[in-house]
Write a structure and sequence with these properties.
five-stranded parallel β-sheet, binds NADPH dihydro-nicotinamide-adenine-dinucleotide phosphate
Length: 317
């Protein structure tokens, strides 16, 4: 085996809970990981407010503070964190092959293994009002932010399984949930549709779209919805709006190189983080369209680290 010290043992791409957990484990196992953070250091959690469902934080913690702690813990054991964006990976093919990781600043890393934890991003409508009220009533995560709307009225936008899950979750907390669906049917699975229909405080507004938000001091107090068949406008008195129109995994740079499903989630072997390429592992939301929680991402980051360690032993590195 080559003694070339410029070849790293593992490079982790992404700095959310999956990436940093993989870093903590690989660092503690002596693999000297280099973690390339992406431009949003800390990942999706840095755009949420309080995180109250991550075990070990009984009083809650802000998403940003939690990610700072993840980073400190990873660095304490020797992880090198590089703030840069990966733009291309040239994967080796056979066990033991070297992978080349290129970044937007022109750096190039060579590594025996790669852990991909680039996450997924919630899709937004792309309207100005979302930006205006971000952090003041606009969210894309009911389990993160729903608690702040206890006893209040909220809107959920979307008609798929994500929206249905968000709506049923919020219905347990909120007074009223208006589900705004742009078509005249739900795309959600049958069982979720039944759940929605049987929840008395969820009101379905088919053929409706949110066209504006109103409020004072950056806090939402009303949503303007329009019937896209009749043009009739309705004002809803709400404190929050949850955009639940799907997530997009951050896998554009891997298209045509790694196996993925029809929407871009990376394929991994069952009960493993192994992709189809030896030495390349995927952890967190980039390969999980089902659970998408910080704690499950962290768990799969740990799995990826253990899978990587085993792989490096197998190739005698
Ligand atoms: P989907 O693509 O299934 O649904 C997106 C919904 O948002 C649709 O109702 C769509 O409307 C609507 N939408 C999209 N863009 C806009 C827009 N600009 N304005 C208004 N509405 C819009 O995404 P999901 O995230 O719900 O689900 C993705 C996949 O993940 C699915 O396969 C789903 O089954 C799965 N999933 C599974 C879960 C589980 O098993 N527990 C939980 C969550 C998701 P339209 O129909 O008009 O396009």
């Amino acid at each position: 085996m080559s003694e070339d010290t410029s070849i790293l043992r593992t490079v982790i791409i992404g700095s959310g809970p999956a990436g940093f957990t993989a870093a903590i484990y690989t660092a503690r196992a002596g693999m000297d990981p280099v973690l390339i953070s992406g431009m949003e250091l800390g990942g999706q959690l840095t755009s949420t407010t309080e995180v109250e469902n991550f075990p070990g934080y009984p009083e809650g913690i802000t998403g940003s503070e939690m990610m700072i702690q993840f980073q400190k813990q990873a660095e304490r054991f020797g992880t090198t964190v590089i703030v840069d964006k990966v733009i291309e990976v040239i994967f080796g093919e056979k066990p033991g092959d070297i992978h080349t990781i290129k970044t937007s600043s022109g750096k190039e890393f060579k590594s025996r293994s790669v852990i991909i934890s680039t996450g997924a991003s919630a899709k937004y409508l792309g309207k100005d009002f979302e930006e205006k009220y971000r952090g003041g009533g606009v969210s894309a995560c009911a389990t993160c932010d729903g608690f702040f709307y206890r006893g209040k009225n909220v809107v959920v936008v979307g008609g798929g399984d994500t929206a249905a899950e968000e709506a049923t979750y919020l219905a347990k907390i909120c007074k009223t949930v208006y589900m705004v669906v742009r078509k005249d049917y739900l795309r959600a699975s049958k069982i979720m549709q039944e759940r929605i229909e049987n929840t008395p405080n969820i009101f379905l507004l088919y053929n409706h779209e949110v066209t504006d938000l109103k409020g004072d001091n950056g806090l939402v107090s009303q949503a303007v919805v329009v019937n896209n068949q009749t043009g009739k406008e309705t004002i809803l008195d709400v404190d929050g709006i949850f955009i639940a129109i799907g997530h997009a995994p951050n896998t554009d740079i891997f298209k045509g190189k790694l196996e993925m499903d029809e929407v871009g989630y990376l394929a991994v072997k069952p009960f493993s983080t192994e992709t189809g390429i030896p030495g390349v592992f995927a952890a967190g939301d980039v390969s999980d369209k089902r659970y998408r929680q910080a704690v499950t991402a962290a768990g799969s980051g740990c799995m990826a680290a253990l899978d990587t360690e085993k792989y490096l032993i197998q190739i005698n590195s």
